[in-house]
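LOG
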Amino acid sequence: MKRILFVDDEVSILDGLKRMLRPMRTEWDMSFAPGGEAALSMLETAPFDVIVTDMRMPGMDGATLLEIVREKYPSLLRIILSGYTELQASMRAVPVAHQFLLKPCDPQMLRAGIARATSLGEVLDSKMLTSLVGALRDLPSLPRVFSELKAALAQPNVSIQRISQIVEQDVALSAKLLQLVNSAFFGLARDVTSVNTAVSCLGISVLHDLVLTLEVFRSFTANDFVSEEYLEEFHRHAQLSARIAAGIAEKTKVSTAVVLAALLHDVGKLVIAERTPAHFARALEQSQEENQPLYEIEERLIHISHAEVGAYLLSLWGLPYSVVEAIAHHHHPRRVPINGLDMVLLVYISNLLAHEREALEQGAPAPAFDIELLEHAGVSDRLQEWRKIAETAQLCTAPLAG
């Protein structure tokens, strides 16, 4: 049973939650804390899996509570309840909340939110994984992209299209933006998988506050372990993979959300580079020395790779399951049943085609495709066609503008 801690300063609301959630007693072991201080005291005496807190509380509000929880109990899943009228204040919780749920929240919505936040964690059950992701404040962003976005937001008549173009250059900005727009704040009837749609939903003023007032997109700078050159290569590969996925998806029935999955497929690398830069640098060095893919080195050293780390984080953030699944399995597509060309297989293909183009450019050995898998999916005869798409996509993928 999942141990859930609910926090609200109003006893009447806690009593209402108890009555409303009574049917969940067979699935959840629930505790109720009348405020932030009481919640912290309870956390010191017993282990919990999830904390669900109201945002607006006197003394210690929900954002402050979750910030303390993140530092002390990084593996605890953090969910915040808030209303539309509290959106501006709740921006402070963006760096520390895994999920946002809108008040009033019925049992089905609450159950779905908690299930979504915990499902991939159960599949990817690893203390290393929860430790790496749980304490993460934000994904790192390239400083110059961050600066470009700040400058654009300062322009009074900047267009949504221009903002979207800047955000799409950066994997971390795209991921955080999509996390927010897919939260319950906006009550959208469908998952948002397009950065342009996300910017449209948020609006320029909200995005301005999100980027300039809060430390959500904290810049990640090169250090002794992770070079500026590597960060540039990371973003170029992400963009190339996304362009290839877009080109292939245009000629197939695969959801356009595959472009988002391809853009974010390596986001776990940023998490590892942020949390354990020395380890990340050693894995990179070993990968180059042994001429083996980085994910194989990671799996050998810590039994998980950046694919699982990125998928776990994006699952906690509430991105669509299909996107999370494709990212989690993009190195091992055989983990899931393959019935023709689906998102998992297309991200796998797009990633390898991008690596293949990069290898040709550098005069390095090209990665090997699982031809048997492609034959089973009935798409092996299209590989040469897709290689031409990749070649064109590479020509269109320019370095990030300074």
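LOG (cont.) second protein
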Amino acid sequence: MTQGIHQLTASMVNQLNRVDVISNNLANANTVGFKEENLAEGTFNRYLREQEKKDATVLKESMVMDTIPKIDASYKNESLGATKLTGNNLDFALKDKELFFKVRNDQGKIEYTRDGSFKNLAGKLVTQNAFEVLDAQNNSIDVNSPNLRESIAVIKTDFKNLEKLGNNNYKTVDDKNTELVVNNDEYIMQGALEQSNVNTIRTMVGLIEAQRTFDRSQKAITGIDQINSKVIDTIGNQR
């Protein structure tokens, strides 16, 4: 009975984590360039098998008993969001899923984003958070430049080489795994924005499923607790 409670409790924790991630996806359903996030769930035994491959000592009893579900990993849906024409000359959309704009935050550090909803701040091209949009030489860009689109630096890297920051931005894990796109003309669409790739209907269904799974686990724990109480009372009365 106790083992069952452990598994059900772990399942409830996992569902709470899923609700957090799914709720964040829904909150960003209208965020430009946002990529949907998901969680992969497995069992603790998978972790133990990975440790065994690394020659770590794993008790055979653990391999039998530890079937507790756990979150294995998080991952992103890297697919392109729909492109929306805006007619705004300071809006830009990237045509490839591995491309990113290079920006400089207010601490002077380089960040990357797919959100091309830029604006004019004192004659400079900046993001909605007032981060400077950079050219290939890491200089700020004049919004009145006749070659505005061509001036914007675009880098190519895999999502696995990125860590999420705030403001829908990322930082690189290894700068050596980034590539500067020399000619960005065929990769940038001016007067358009990439929409979030969150499917709101599917995401709502996922949220409902996570909540229902949480409720089922909670009810099962209550049932086990009631059975345990009856067993204890029965044994006590027999004495």
